[in-house]
């Protein structure tokens, strides 16, 4: 068997990506997404979309995604390969010049579905063979008008804060004791706590929603309780960030912040609100459940 040819696509042959049969079990296609290149008005850039070819047949493919203004990919969120071609998939990831996190989308409860479990484990094994390491599994939520709209608790007050340095200070306090795997990974890196806080701030600015939406939360005695950031990412309205400072924990304020964020977005016309949290972050998962957010997907992150 000849070695596959591994290369990026070009605007003239981007349609090659769609000649591969989509998985009905995991990945973006399983949830109604379709690959469309920017050459055809879509969101995937041909030079960030790679295929492994044996002859004229696509046997593995991967697409890295970035926002409209990004000069490099943000994440790998499309990766699959033909039966028996896991090594071709791994080799594709090794050769592609992008060192970005892999977000594998799976259905809720995927471990209980043999077909979905096999599809997830095959992709995780191939990504691991390419040098990636599992980072975290996350619940993905989606509030819709069919869900009850949680009522504001009235326990906190919310005020905009125009000074990024004040926002950074609150983010440092939130991340000084965090259950979030991505924040902990940043803290363990060379930039420490400062890098973790700035990564969050950079994400807030990256979102195309207004800066004026960000809110600090205050207790009745005027102390900062936390921060909540209603946002729009390129896919739509979302809970951009919820964080309670350590000294205000133990009162269930994460729920208050989530409820405020949800109501604010609905008041801005949102017809759905997406959210996510690490599966190991039990307090935040409980807040989403209490607020009526159903788990719609589980995402497996490798870095």
UniProtKB/TrEMBL annotation:
Single Gene Ontology MF annotation: acyltransferase activity
Give the EC number.
2.3.-.-
Q: Which UniProt keywords apply?
A: Acyltransferase, Transferase
Coiled-coil spans are none
State a single Pfam family of this protein. Acetyltransf_1
Domain N-acetyltransferase positions: 156-303
Q: What protein name applies here?
A: GNAT family N-acetyltransferase
């Amino acid at each position: 068997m000849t070695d596959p040819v591994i290369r990026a696509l070009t605007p003239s042959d981007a349609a090659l990506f769609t000649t591969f049969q989509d998985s009905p079990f995991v990945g973006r296609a399983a949830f109604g997404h379709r690959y469309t290149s920017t050459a055809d008005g879509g969101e995937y850039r041909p030079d960030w979309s790679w295929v492994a070819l044996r002859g004229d047949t696509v046997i593995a493919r991967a697409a890295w995604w970035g926002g409209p203004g990004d000069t490099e990919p943000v994440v790998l969120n499309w990766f699959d390969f033909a039966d028996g071609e896991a090594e071709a998939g791994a080799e594709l990831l090794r050769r592609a010049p992008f060192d970005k996190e892999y977000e594998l989308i799976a259905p809720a409860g995927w471990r209980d579905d043999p077909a979905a479990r096999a599809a997830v484990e095959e992709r995780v094994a191939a990504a691991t063979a390419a040098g990636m390491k599992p980072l975290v599994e996350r619940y993905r939520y989606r509030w819709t008008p069919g869900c009850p709209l949680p009522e504001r608790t009235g326990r906190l007050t919310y005020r905009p804060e125009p000074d990024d340095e004040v926002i950074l200070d609150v983010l440092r306090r939130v991340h000084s004791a965090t259950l979030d795997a991505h924040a902990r990974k940043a803290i363990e890196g060379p930039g420490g706590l400062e890098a973790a806080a700035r990564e969050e701030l950079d994400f807030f600015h990256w979102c195309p929603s207004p800066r004026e939406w960000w809110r600090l939360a205050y207790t009745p005695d005027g102390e900062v309780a936390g921060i909540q950031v209603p946002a729009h990412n390129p896919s739509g309205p979302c809970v951009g960030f919820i964080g309670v400072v350590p000294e205000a924990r133990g009162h269930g304020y994460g729920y208050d912040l989530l409820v405020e964020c949800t109501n604010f977005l609905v008041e801005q016309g949102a017809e759905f609100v997406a959210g996510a949290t690490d599966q190991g972050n039990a307090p935040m998962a409980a807040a989403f459940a209490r607020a009526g957010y159903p788990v719609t997907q589980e995402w497996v992150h490798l870095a």
